[in-house]
Structures are given as structure tokens and as C-alpha cells.
From TrEMBL:
Keyword Transmembrane: yes
Species the sequence originates in: Paenibacillus agricola
Pfam family, one: N_methyl
Organism classification: Bacteria, Bacillati, Bacillota, Bacilli, Bacillales
Secretion signal, residue range per the UniProt entry: none
Keywords linked to the UniProt accession: Competence, Membrane, Transmembrane, Transmembrane helix
Transmembrane parts of this sequence: 20-41
Annotated protein name in UniProt: Prepilin-type N-terminal cleavage/methylation domain-containing protein
Amino acid sequence: MKKRINLLGKITGNEKGLTLIELLAVIVILAIISAIAIPAIGSVISGTKKKAHNANGITAINAARFKAINDSPTVEKVYKLKDLVTEGYLEKIPSDPDVKGSTYGDETSYVTVKLIGITGNYSYSATLAPSGTGALLYFKDKSEEHLTQGTEDAEPETP
């Protein structure tokens, strides 16, 4: 039987497998790695959803912008996402990134267009709410600038 000397200077025989201490050390290392990685992944997913809400708000505003060009509203005008789809300004109501397989509320999500003074320019703001709810909003009257710059995150709020 061949004997060899391990790192601690002890003579050992042909050992196979892991000791309980080695196995516990591996489990502890994996637990530490997962404790660090899981919250980091969760925050990445959350941040991505907020960016998707902002992008969907910009899409709705751009559709309302084309509608406003045709309508030339002289007062504040509200365009519901449902109407923008019906009239062909949006292909479909955007998907809700928080609820898989769902879209935003067709009656509760809209874009507000306001005429700015006598300049003929308009300001745009979006309100997005999940489908089938009355009290929860992803954001309310979020301006185009805030959506573009991402200065305000889409957080569920109550009106």
C-alpha cells in the first residue's frame, strides 16, 4: 500500500471522498455566495421593470403626440390607451412588466396633453395603472422629461 505525505506533514493512505468538514465548508461557501447574489439579482429585476414602465409611458406619450397633432386640442385633453389603440395610434396596449401576460388598464391608463400658453406647444404626461385595479397606479401624471431621464422611478402608488 502506497503512503503519501499530505500538506500538514501527516502520512496518509489512499483516501477517497470528502470528509464531513470539507463538505460543510463547501455548503457554507455556497450559502454565502447565494446570500450575496440573490438580493443583487432581485434589485436588477426591479430596476429593469421600472425602466420598462418608463419606456411604456414614453410609447404612450408618442402615440398621444401623433393624435394631438391631428386633433390640435385647445384645452387639456386626456387620451386613454384604449382609444389610442382603437384609432390606430398604438398597435396594442403595452404589456405590464409586473404582471406576466397582462397589459395596463385600458380605462385607467392614459396620457394627458396640455397646451402651453399661446405658443402652440404641448406638454405630455402619462398615468399607467395595472389592468383590473382601481386604486393602484405605477405612476400618475409623470412628465415626458421624467420618463426620459428616469429621474422618478415607477413605484406603485395609490391615487
